[in-house]
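Protocol step 4 of 6: structure prediction from sequence.
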Amino acid sequence: MNIANELTTIIPAKNEARLIPYLLTSLMLQDAPGISRMKVYVADAQSTDGTPEVVHGYSEWMNVEVIPGGRPSHGRNAGARLASTPYLLFLDADMRLTDVTLIRRAVALMKSRQLHCVTTNIACPEGKFWDRTLYRGNNLMQHFSRLGRPFSTGMFMLFDKRRFDQLGGFHEQVHFAEDFLLSQKVSPRRFGIVKGSIATTDRRFRLMSHGKLAGLFLKTALNSWNHSYFLRDHKYWQTEA
């Protein structure tokens, strides 16, 4: 398996100059054959902190390109339109891959079981007790979702491109949880969770309280069938750096 022929990675970013080097470095260290030639699109939403320049600095070691972005859904779809590989990997800019085998194993799982979407667990190793607890709850919900309507976050979302295109990609009019909405369209039989985890920071909890984020997550789950809920502005992105 030459991963460069199989996979395109897409990362939406805005003002991520401090954190995106951890992600790009962890991508470089993945053990999948051809990883240095795998196309990586960073969809930049008019960053003012030098994010594009930081990303360009990695072009000596990886096949990375900065493209115009916007909200995460716009950036992810922009990268997907440029991709010609059978699989797409969507990552958030503030996480990192701590297991060098993760991408290789995720693609192998996708191919062996003919899945449409694969995700993994989320860890917050540098977070406090409640940070780690809430992410464990998120992981539990992902596993239970395989019994009904699949749930994956955009932190790590591997998609079959043909199915992604058939589903229309990420909904660009919703204000948040576009990853949640898209993954729910996947058949439970075509949804998988690869063993292991990715690492993220506690930034979301520092920007919003644990109670607010937990409440927003609960409301989102309860409104899964209420399309108008996602079209309203819940001020989620106003909290982001």
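Step 5 (inspection) to follow. Confidence is low (pLDDT under 50) at residues 237-241.
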